[in-house]
Backbone:
């Protein structure tokens, strides 16, 4: 953080003493006004529910320019990473700050590959769930349960523990997501295979059965690998902020990541991909493209409580670059599968076109986000709708753990403890029950 030569002065109309607040600038993006001494010097808090104007930390990992629709992981544009790297390269970048050279890539890929199995007893943990349990309920439980098996990597303040926990989480998430899927299907779990790439291993654990050899489709493997890259990290979004706040108490990394999984599940966040596809299927069921106008009218009617899922973003006030890449991936996958006329994809593109010409969306700068097309790609690959958010959690795990480790690795970090504006009852005494109204 570089001190700016500009200062902020806070003055009060009631004659309270004015206060000078330092301003810091980052390498790019908005400057920050340092209010850490505000309460001590003025007895007042700032007020920012939803954190629309609040920087909760400084970070070197991911940068988003919402106006330009730009996303950088450690300075590299998402467009270059999604087309020139694979997911494990991006994991190395997010964790260590640099893309791996050939030697590092071989070592890192091998390290992750050799941690893809989970403790054999995890299977019994799954059996406690109903077969029709939502995969995110299962995944939240499974990730938290990892802390019961890996006591040798739960001391978050030990850098070696932090690193091995990161590798274990990145390596085991595909295995756990595939186990949740197989459990729901009533099919046997498929063990990881060390000769396969990370994405191919996931596809095989998801779709192979003991009855025949499974040969991964290269186009689908590339597509799922790109989906992982596009979802890997995204600054201080709700689930990443949850992981940071949870981890700030010193809890173990598995518990902190489980908190992130739980937060991601919400339809306003990672659950939007499932909601977006359900929305498209509902429009398709009720008449398809002809019904888009009626649906848009509902969205614009505040009383209807209907949102265009997969649209809008707190930070992007331009097209989410990930949505563009996801739409391209849609084309590639549907072409490869001979699904050129996939009605849902055509419906999605019509809906996008109509929305982007409608002033309601244009005036509010509502554009497609990463979730608008990801469901169509995943559905074409064979991933069931209920598993979309679990795939998002699989991919975001590297971002969560990189952000958590960055926070814990900062000697200045403190436990997060926001304050409030209290508007409830002031002090009062209990009346005997006979005197209560
Ligand atoms: C993700 O933070 C991240 O980085 C998240 C994420 C990541 O990678 O981690 O990018 C992943 O969560 C993407 C977002 C997925 N969610 C959805 O697609 C759900 C639908 N989108 C909305 O719920 C909403 O756009 C949010 C939650 C994403 C953003 O909400 P904000 O920033 O709080 O904006 P807002 O609700 O204040 O909306 C501003 C206006 C409101 O209208 P007015 O009060 O001005 O009249 O836009 C409207 C909203 O009603 N609006 C929408 C809308 N999104 C916002 N209207 C219809 N459909 C929508 N989708």
Residues:
């Amino acid at each position: 953080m570089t001190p700016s030569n500009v200062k902020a002065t806070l003055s009060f109309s009631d004659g309270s003493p004015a206060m000078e607040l330092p301003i810091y600038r980052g390498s790019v993006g908005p400057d920050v006004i340092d209010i850490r001494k505000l309460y001590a010097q003025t007895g007042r808090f700032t007020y920012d529910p939803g954190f629309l104007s609040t920087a909760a930390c400084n970070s070197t990992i991911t940068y988003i320019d919402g106006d330009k629709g730009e996303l950088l992981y450690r300075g590299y544009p998402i467009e270059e990473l999604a087309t020139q790297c694979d997911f494990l390269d991006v994991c190395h970048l997010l964790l260590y700050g640099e893309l791996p050279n050939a030697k590092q890539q071989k070592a890192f890929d091998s390290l992750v590959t050799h941690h893809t199995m989970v403790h054999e007893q995890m299977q019994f943990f799954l059996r406690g769930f109903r077969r029709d349990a939502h995969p995110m309920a299962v995944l939240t439980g499974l990730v938290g349960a990892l802390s019961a098996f890996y006591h040798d990597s739960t001391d978050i303040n030990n850098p070696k523990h932090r690193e091995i926990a990161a590798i274990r989480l990145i390596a085991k998430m595909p295995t756990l997501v595939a186990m949740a899927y197989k459990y729901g299907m009533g099919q046997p779990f498929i063990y990881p295979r060390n000769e396969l790439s990370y994405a191919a291993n996931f596809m095989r654990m998801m779709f192979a059965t003991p009855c025949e050899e499974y040969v991964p489709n290269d186009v689908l493997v590339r597509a799922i690998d790109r989906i992982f890259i596009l979802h890997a990290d995204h600054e201080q979004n709700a689930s990443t902020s949850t992981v940071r706040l949870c981890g700030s108490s010193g809890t173990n990394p598995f518990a902190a990541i489980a908190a992130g999984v739980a937060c991601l599940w919400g339809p306003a966040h990672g659950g939007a991909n499932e909601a977006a596809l359900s929305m498209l299927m509902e429009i398709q069921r009720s008449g398809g493209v002809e019904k888009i106008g009626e649906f848009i009218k509902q969205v614009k009617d505040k009383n209807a409580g209907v949102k265009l899922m997969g649209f809008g973003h707190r930070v992007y006030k331009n097209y989410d670059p990930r949505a563009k890449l996801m739409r391209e991936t849609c084309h590639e996958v549907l072409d490869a599968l001979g699904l050129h006329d996939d009605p849902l994809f055509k419906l999605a593109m019509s809906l996008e076109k109509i929305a982007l010409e409608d002033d309601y969306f244009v005036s509010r700068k509502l554009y497609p986000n990463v979730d608008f097309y990801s469901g169509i790609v995943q559905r074409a690959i064979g991933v069931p709708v209920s598993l979309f958010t679990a795939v998002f959690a699989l991919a975001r795990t590297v971002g969560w753990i990189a952000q958590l480790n960055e926070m814990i690795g900062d000697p200045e970090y403190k436990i997060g403890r926001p304050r409030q504006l209290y508007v409830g009852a002031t002090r009062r005494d209990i009346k005997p029950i006979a005197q209560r109204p």
